[in-house]
Amino acid sequence: SAVISQKPSRDICQRGTSLTIQCQVDSQVTMMFWYRQQPGQSLTLIATANQGSEATYESGFVIDKFPISRPNLTFSTLTVSNMSPEDSSIYLCSASGMTTRHNEQFFGPGTRLTVL
Amino acid sequence: GQSLEQPSEVTAVEGAIVQINCTYQTSGFYGLSWYQQHDGGAPTFLSYNALDGLEETGRFSSFLSRSDSYGYLLLQELQMKDSASYFCAVKEAGTALIFGKGTTLSVSS
After folding, report:
1. What b/e readout covers B32-49, taking b as 16+ CB neighbours within 10 angstroms?
2. Spans of chain B below 50 pLDDT
3. Secondary structure of chain B as H, E, C letters
4. A103/B50 CB distance under 8 A
5. Average of pLDDT values for A47-54?
6. How far is residue A21 from each of residues A6, A10, A15, A113, B69, measured CA to CA in Å?
7. Would you call A87 helix, strand, or coil by DSSP?
8. Which of A11, A12, A29, B100 could lock onto A95 through a cystine, CB 3.0 to 4.6 A?
């Protein structure tokens, strides 16, 4: 199995600012993903973080708003840019492949973001 | 695109058996997964079905019928700690899981 850590675990930010969330996996993985989850709601896929190339974004999410980096097989960052209160949510990092079972995605504990 | 339907809420008592159904529509299909999420926690993997039939893991079982685009999660000998949200999710080749809206299970004594 893979253990995923995220930093920060929570933050309160002012509108118009940006926050970068870090995701670290304790083993090499093929795929890394970023999800958003409102409390009590489902998980919505933001993007797939590709190593060495631009992330692949889902409909409704754009690179200017959610720039993503993935410099190696164990680390990724998600930036929430020019934040508004609508960005308040839990952001989850997920990973699969290589040292994990191919059909299982592991999730980090999430970053709870509140935008005032 | 993909869509998944599952009941929003299920209630049961300790020791009972509960079945959570999931129907899906997807352009490509590699398998159906089930995840459990407790309040404030991360989703955790429960099961995965790629082929038709029943997969059993302890008190939990999962079933898939590819021809019916249907699956279910069966929870037996319910315990209070099973109170959580349960999500079905589909996976297409080389992509991330897409989740259903989730079913909130409440187990009472």
Report:
1. bbbbbbeeeebbebbbbb
2. none
3. CCEEECCCEEEEECCCCEEEEEEEECCCCCEEEEEEECCCCCCEEEEEECCCEEEEECCEEEEEECCCCEEEEEECCCCHHHCEEEEEEEECCCCCEEECCCEEEEEEC
4. yes
5. 91
6. 7, 10, 17, 10, 36
7. helix
8. A29
Q: Does A103 touch chain B (CB under 8 A)?
A: yes
Query: Would you say how long chain A is, in residues?
Result: 116
**Residue A16 pLDDT > 80:** yes
Task: Tell the burial category of A84 from Cβ atoms under 10 Å away from its Cβ (0-12, 13-18, 19+).
Answer: exposed
Whole-number Å distance between alpha carbons of B50 and B31 = 4
The minimum CA-CA distance between A103 and chain B, rounded to whole Å, is 7
